[in-house]
Amino acid sequence: MSFRPQGVSGSSGGGGSGDFSSFIYVAAPGAVYELSRWTGYTLRHLSFSFFNVANIPPLGGVYITNQLPTSLHPGNMNPQTFWSTYVYTGVAGGTLSFDFDPGLIWVGPGETLYIVVCDLVAPSSSSTNTAKWRLNTLWEPYGR
Question: From CA 83, how far away is CA 15, in angstroms rounded?
Answer without folding.
Answer: 10
